[in-house]
Amino acid sequence: MNDQINPDTALVLFSGGQDSTTCLAWALSRFARVEMLGFTYGQRHAIELECRDRLLDGIKALRPDWAARLGDSHTLAIPTLSEISDTALTRDVAIEMGADGLPNTFVPGRNLVFLTFAAALAYRRGIRHVIGGMCETDYSGYPDCRNDTIKALQSALNLGMAKNFELHTPLMWLDKAATWRLADELGGAGLVDLIREHSHTCYLGERGALHDWGYGCGECPACTLRAKGWREYAAQHVNH
After folding, report:
1. Is 145 annotated as a binding residue?
2. Which residues form the signal peptide (predicted)?
3. Is 89 assigned a ligand-binding role in the annotation?
4. Is position 202 annotated in a ligand binding site?
5. Who contacts 205 (Cβ-Cβ below 8 Å, separation ≥6)?
6. Which of 62, 123, 166, 194 is the most exposed place for a label (fewest CB within 10 A)?
7. CB of 32 within 8 A of CB of 69?
8. Is 101 annotated as a binding residue?
9. CA-to-CA distance for 185 and 29, rounded, in angstroms?
10. CATH (residue range 6-238)
């Protein structure tokens, strides 16, 4: 048990997707030591977790100063999440909108569970800052991605663990085009190309065809958002 919280360390929720990779770069530009945490919970797109090593290798090659700051990478298995969920992310069913206005890719409680486990790990590791890619600007409407949810959870975690964690969501108010632009600002064309080619977003786990925005089915909500953001970013990039 580490009773001392280090203000210069961070733990990033790192799934191997575009958003979490951008958040990892954001953390590496701000903190002296950065650890990573991914989850396996029976998700259909578990292939995203296999992308993490290639992304980390690319980041290390891109920026030696970032390589020196990278700490341990953790993976936690929480199969119970899929056992109590009936969603298109954890079942082989078509992706569609539900009667409640949410896509059936919504896994109830997922981000609440992720951040609670992350805070528990951070508690043990002596880490104060926990970073996630939640966003309520350009997203599928998930209620656990909202800023109010994250702020409320931060209060609950600090009360329940008697610590002073800070939950950071650097993408919260960015649309997907701005997320690509942030990656460009943090790591230049090298980071953008790394994320485009080696990160994974597609809910169906499709990595057959390489589009200009990366791999994916091109039709699920995650691919649609990523492709739309890429087109807007690329257009802005050409104009500037």
Report:
1. no
2. none
3. no
4. yes
5. 44, 45, 46, 47, 48
6. 166
7. yes
8. no
9. 11
10. 3.40.50.620
Annotated ligand binding at 141? The verdict is: no
Q: What is the pLDDT of residue 134?
A: 92
* 217 labeled part of a ligand binding site: yes
Give the pLDDT mean for 118-125: 96
Q: Where do the structural domains in the chain lie, given as residue ranges?
A: 6-238
Annotated binding-site residue? 135:
no
Q: Which pLDDT value is given to residue 50?
A: 84
* Orientation of helix 52-62 relative to helix 18-28, angle to 10°: 40
Q: What is the pTM of this model?
A: 0.90
Is 160 annotated as contributing to ligand binding?
A: no
Is 73 marked as binding a ligand? no
Residue 71 near residue 89, CB atoms below 8 Å:
no
